[in-house]
Amino acid sequence: MSGLSLAQARLREERKAWRKDRPFGFWARPREKPASSAPLAFSSQAPQDATTLTSTAAPTATANSSSSTTAGSTGSASRSHTAPTASTGGNNSDAKGLLASSTAAGSGGLDLLEWEAGIPGKPGTPFEGGEFRLLLHFTEDYPTRPPKCVFTPVLFHPNVYPSGTVCLSILNEEKDWRPSITIKQILLAIQELLDNPNIKDPAQEEPYKVYMRDRKEYEDRVRQEVAKHHKKRMV
């Protein structure tokens, strides 16, 4: 499994399956690890321009002592140097010709335990025209335990906690969660929940009260929230 845990291996297979067969209008993908978490790659290639990295060491009287000082000082300078500029070809160099190439932003690899997704609102419902983004947080206990799904921004909905966490029986291991449930099934179930809230299990007080008091007022409020916070956009 190339060093992957059981949870990560399962999620890798989930990603393959999703890319082959995803519902129309949906998207889902693992998040990228920060580039800073990836190690620097070194090579012994000669630098194109030895002047691109400035040493902070004081000048010395002889060539031998200057060479020794430069080798030591540039080692620390290269570690504290900021992101490489386009003029250096994406590389920092020291006086000994070592190139330290930092990983490009957003290319630290995929974090299979952290996903982001977008769910389209169904046509003919107050959620139509919206795209509802959420984060899926998996643990190493997956698929024994379900992911935590969090809308961002928080959704105005009776079954969404003020934190944005989705309240849904298939996401509760003490209720209807099963290890065979896939990411595709989770997202489709959440889409279905949008226009069919479970009023027996409310999680957010205001939308629940409005929904129970006046359905038209609730639907008007949903449309306002969609227009203001959840309009579909390119990813």
UniProtKB/TrEMBL annotation:
Recorded GO MF terms: ATP binding; ubiquitin-like protein transferase activity
UniProt cross-references to InterPro entries, sorted A to Z: Ub_conjugating_enzyme (IPR050113), UBC (IPR000608), UBQ-conjugating_AS (IPR023313), UBQ-conjugating_enzyme/RWD (IPR016135)
Pathway terms, separated by semicolons: Protein modification; protein sumoylation
Biased composition (Basic and acidic residues): 13-34
Biased composition annotated in UniProt, kind: Polar residues: 84-100
Localisation: Nucleus
Name of a matching Pfam family: UQ_con
PANTHER family registered for this protein in UniProt: UBIQUITIN-CONJUGATING ENZYME E2 (PTHR24067)
Comp. bias regions, Low complexity: 50-83
Residues annotated as domain UBC core: 76-231
Active site as annotated: C167
Keywords from the UniProt entry: ATP-binding, Nucleotide-binding, Nucleus, Transferase, Ubl conjugation pathway
Signal peptide stretch: none
Protein name, as recorded: SUMO-conjugating enzyme UBC9
PROSITE patterns in the record: UBC_1 (PS00183), UBC_2 (PS50127)
Positions of the UniProt region annotated as Disordered: 13-100
CC per GO annotation: chromosome; nucleus
Domain of life: Eukaryota
Family, similarity comment: Belongs to the ubiquitin-conjugating enzyme family.
